[in-house]
Amino acid sequence: MKKNNSLLLSTPYIIWMLLFTLIPLGVVAFYAFTDPATGEFTLENMNALSAYLPVLWESIYYALISALICLLLGYPVAYYIAHRTPAVQKFLHMLVMLPMCMSFLLRTLAWVGLLQDTGLINRFLDWIGIGALPLIRTPGAVILGMVYNYLPYMILPLYSTIVKIDGRLIEAAEDLGCNGVQTFGRVVLPLSTPGIFTGITMVFVPAVSTFYISQKLGGTDTVLIGDVIERLFKQGQNQNLGAALSLVLMALVFVCTDIMNRFGGSSDEEGGVIV
Amino acid sequence: MSKELIRLQDLVMEFDGERILDGINLYIKDHEFLTLLGPSGCGKTTTLRIIGGFLSATSGSVLFDGKSIGDVPPYKRQVNTVFQRYALFPHLDVFDNIAFGLKVAKLPKAEITERVQEMLAIVGLRGYENRRIDSLSGGQQQRVAIARALVNRPKVLLLDEPLAALDLRLRKDMQNELKRIQQTLGITFVYVTHDQEEALSMSDTVVVMDKGRIQQIGKPEDIYNEPKNAFVADFIGESNILDGIMLADYKVKFFGRTFKCLDAGFEANEPVDVVIRPEDIDFVPVEEGHLTGTVTSVTFKGLNYDIIVDFKGFKWLIQTTDFQPVGATVGIRLNPEDIHIMKKSEYSGMFGDYSSYSAEYDELVEDAGDEEE
User: Fold this and answer.
1) Which chain A residues have a beta carbon less than 8 Å from that of B104?
2) pTM for this model (two decimals)
3) Sheet harboring B314-320: ordered strands across?
4) Per residue in B89-114, pLDDT tens?
5) Which of A122, A220, A270, B62 has the fewest CB atoms below 10 angstroms from its CB?
């Protein structure tokens, strides 16, 4: 009886998943293995992907660098928030989430305004006598855009892991001879690994497949895998090749997530915050 | 007697304008098992945390071996702690938990292994080296916590209500175990508990605390037999406490009668508190008794009956194996050694009346449930 009810209640979602996730996925797979001209089964698209390997590596590289910077910036913030009084924690938590209330596209465009050659930053640099610098259309700008947009996804799981570390464990470590640095290295850091791996996954996955950030902030030489896929589809060059590339990217994301989950141990239960 | 190891001088602790400790003076001898006993909020855990270095007192000093250690951080003190609910490291197995302090001290690997094995044998956990902490029972976690502290060979082991989370049976076993370990290793134990029975059965010295002040320090027998005031008399075991007047040395008057007692040194006609322990009272036939009363309630306790007897409107608790039905008229005799005289204190009149017998028990249960301070 109860089982039937829950199945009934989840039916709308199952239909939704079927219509808008599974079937489109099937279509992507179908395109990936068919010839654009004849519509027959072919492995040609997959074979052609080797040309895109450098782009794929570059995308992974950018996403990993961004995830690492997010970790280095985010960990101290998460640690700081977790050690405030509950009221302050709530407020700071809200501040971290605040940028996410605004459209991702708008936020990235705002950076264009700031970074461009006649933008706010360069005008300021000009004014204090340093002179305008090439900021936009650089790899640095792309990394900046990724870090800026995805930092909250790093801070929140870290925070929710660190806040759960029992204060008495820290006292126990001190009691057993650890100074501040040793306490951090032997107790706090190991106990925050689930949050670290969840955070890295949550930054890496959207960063590796983004195309908007690299298009707006990157130069013509910064082409990421997301850009390539978008171009193959939108400019109608080769939808079948685009589908193949999407499939590979998705597989890559799955593999990365799985590896992270393995490292993180119980990250599913402890990493917690998925926004 | 062995030498003094720790001395607390005029310790005052204030927190948010509230006085948690109000002038604690105490010295702890080497190799001693000393217990800080009191209800929750009495300041016993605060005192322990000051010795451990996790809190610093608002004023007053802590001397270790004659030297002030007020500014020494916890990791540099020759003291280790067994925390309330153990605080074991969940990311390490049993071996690494116990080895934690030794690894931090960078001891050679062979020595670490040897000392951990030795500790595992002492706490009876041989073969558990590679077990995860969350796969252990409460009693086993307790043993790991003790081993983790003792393996560092501290001069003093601080124990903060270590048995509070265990069930009664296990608690009794661990009491014996702890006492055995303390005697085997000859380490000073400073033990915090709200359980008077635990304190009496394990300690060399009991320090009874309430409201941030020490009420009495003494051997368990002395604390029980010669409580200093109504609070101690009531907190350590059950007590009937009556108003009396000390007529002269060895002569006290209460309930309109004069009784012989063993106490002296009071002023003539000084008002005093008279303590009579419930287990010291025996029923006698009415005509032989000093006092006559009516039984109003009987509770079977296993070892004995708790019988409430109404003497002229004042209800006493009497613990006896001699059953009397509700409504029976009974007589009692009071021998001089059954009567203990205390000076009047701020606690006079607050304890020792069993008119609201059940309420008294509720209070005790509440106390036991609330171990955090």
Assistant:
1) 176-178, 182, 186
2) 0.80
3) B282-284, B329-333, B291-300, B305-311, B314-320
4) 999 999 999 999 999 999 999 999 99
5) A220
